[in-house]
Amino acid sequence: MSMNADNHDRDALGPFFDAARGTAPAPSEDMLARVLADAERIRTTPRQPRSSRPLTARLRDLLGGWPAIAGLTTAALTGLWIGAVLPNTVPGAETPEYLVDITPEMAFDLIGRDE
Amino acid sequence: MPFDSIEDLPDDALLARFADGNADAARVLTLRLTPRAMAHAFRLLGNRAEAEDVTQEAMLRLWKQARDWRSGEAKVTTWLYRVVANLCIDRRRRDRGGAVTLDAIPEPEDGRTSVTEAMQERARADALQAALNTLPARQRQAVVLRHIDGLSNPEIAEIMELTVEAVESLTSRGKRALKAGLAGRKEELGYVDER
Lengths: 115, 195
Fold this sequence. Notes:
The complex is a heterodimer of chains A (about 120) and B (about 200). Chain A has about 120 residues and is mainly α. In chain A, about 10% of the residues are buried. Chain B is mainly α and about 200 residues long. Helix content of chain B is about 65%, strand content about 0%. The termini of chain B are far apart. Classes of the chains: A mainly alpha (about 120), B mainly alpha (about 200). Chains A and B meet through helix 1 and helix 2 of A and helix 3, helix 4, helix 6 and helix 9 of B.
């Protein structure tokens, strides 16, 4: 749509828009009273304390309190100690492996081989 | 503080005072914002009772938002227009098909050519409202904000979360549809197209 056509639409509708502005419905006294009653109810409601608590306190509660935090810390330090101090191979792992024949009766001699 | 000075405060300052427990701030905001919200809701819904419900709900949300309001981020009226429009759109989605049409507006009775200016004004407003009700929701919202509430295109773009160009397109198409919808009623409403 061209600018001229747009302006013409606006001019043509001008009296209707003016009429709409001039006849806007006003809120009733009852309605204003209801809005104010809502405001009063919200205004006198105590603030929720949740946002005032520090992050560390909320985290502590989330994990289950101080005993749970102590347990988690102990487990973490133990894991660290095992990783840093103990030898990095399992004892005995460097010795020759044991061969365990769990079914000796199934063994068979090589064909044609003399003892 | 003197009584009349609080009435000069901007909306966001009043909201901050309300959040701090000031009852006068609630009264001033109610008298200042409720009529605007109500008129806007009525233009989008075409029904006074529904407009009152939506306005009360929007104002309730404003009170609840007051304590978390960040001054300077958005205008209170921008936020309120957006909430009112969203509530109206939700309501129309719930009971789609209940909108008033042009045919629902009563025709003037014969022999009443000597109508007063006030009656003609009312008839024009009613005819416009009926035509608005036939527009798609976003077109209606843009036209009402621009040409009845008198907001600028950038303000409307912020309310509707669109670009300014998209707002211009919506209002342009909306006006074209309104003009077509009202074309058959110009004479009876005392309006003559001069083109």
